[in-house]
Give the backbone structure.
Amino acid sequence: ADGATSTAVAIRALKSFGAKSVNYLVPNRFEFGYGLTPELVEVASREFSPDMIITVDNGIANHAGVLKAKELGIKVLITDHHLPAETLPLADAIVNPNQFHDEFPSKSIAGVGVIFYVMLALRRFLSDQNWFAKQNIPEPTMSRLLDLVALGTVADVVSLDHNNRIMVYQGLRRIRAGQCIPGITALLQVAKRNQALISSSDLGFSVAPRLNAAGRLDDMSLGIECLITDDLNHALHIAGTLSELNDERRLIENDMKTQAMSILNSVLQNKQTLPLGICLFDETWHQGVIGILASRVKEHFHRPVIAFALGNDTEIKGSARSISGLHIRDVLADIDVKNPGLIKKFGGHAMAAGLTLDKNNYSEFSRLFNELVSKKLGANHEGHVFLSDGELTQTELALDIAELLREAGPWGQSFPEPVFDGIFKIVDQHLVAGKHLKLNLQKEEQLFEAIAFNVDLKAWPNYRAQAVNLVYRLDVNEFRNKKKLQLIAEYLEEV
């Protein structure tokens, strides 16, 4: 989603500046791998004969691709936010806040934020040159692109530092007011979300997965087309297809998760200790879904996870997800330095990374990964610890408090929404959609509705339980224009 929104920002900005010939090309991960590869440059040269290639959300590790472009006489501008290696590609220009000695203060900015700043600078330059007046073009208002910046920033789960929060907040305001692109409106409609009331979590859990489904199972170009069209009917048609792809992705993900949990539970049943750094691989797994699988396993066991799938007959591709306190790209870099040639290529940032291995090196890599993670986390790793803002009184457990908290957002990575805890009496419990637990709870004389998503079906529903210790967030549930307080369970256990 970061790459798709970045592409849409670049195309919409450049066309509004008067550029006549702007095209895009997505590296199909199953055919070319990631980023600006030499093969992709050849395709770009053959199809578009470009004067310049601009990368978005990639390029900082693509030395060979940049050299190929230079051989063909094509200028290259890299815009990226991933961490660089010690040597940089020989591009004409590189814009990346995480380059060595770069003084840009917002180091957590997503790829879509980087290209947004580049387009801001270009608009300023063109304005200083009187370009818009000479071309008889109205000077573009760049804030109209903040809906895309907000979506890409939330979807990429980067830290919501001061700068990112401003951009996400302003983007959300535009979306709620209906001043957004047709593609976002369409994706919200197929997700059955009230556009006037959306929050950052709606972007992260409803819009982004549908957009991402295109890149995971098919071609991300479908998602980009949804974001660059100005025709709402066309956007709705694409959004419907994306939603179908997302449903297919969910089925594949559930099968893979069942297999992964079976492997790990068998380790636990044999009274063995799970490794602190978990590696998983199955030849039948879908390469486009391993990132989600790694996230699900990480959430369950609260330890860093790398899930692998076949890349070709001899290679496997891994997607890594980490936990707070462990910089996953640095772990891969340490392994690479001490074991040259073991990892064919890698890249990423603190919480997520990708890598490629020879299939025969999987066992050795798994061993080294666990050893290094164990060394960095230490023997006192406690698993998932919930930090609570405490227990709420009866008067604080109220709809107006939930609405205040929603308006105080956006919440997200490194700027978490307040979480509370308390013991409630269980009045009723039942499953919805086969995996979510609906609870009617009582505290003193007051009744509350709560929901726990994707519960452990071996533990819940639990009709023996009379009370529950709940870690929860306050939410506003709106149905048929009626608002009700709802508790969103982050964790629950029988008391």
